[in-house]
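Q: Sequence in, structure out?
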Amino acid sequence: MKLELPDDILLGAETTNQELRMALALQLYSDGRVDYADACRLAEVAPGIFDRELAGRDISIIRFPPLSTWREKRRAG
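A: Exactly. Output:
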């Protein structure tokens, strides 16, 4: 999947592609929608870097409930 974003919004937000990838990965991970490995892959960073980003935002590395529980609820809903 390819996501296209308006250049003027990105310029106005003073952000980069890498910052957006990290922000998306952090949010999806925080919401329990992706697991740790997928979040690192989405952010295109090594686990240690992702850990620092999590810590800087007070997001726990340990997710409860497990991702599988979230997926089951999503399918049922």
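The radius of gyration is 14 Å.
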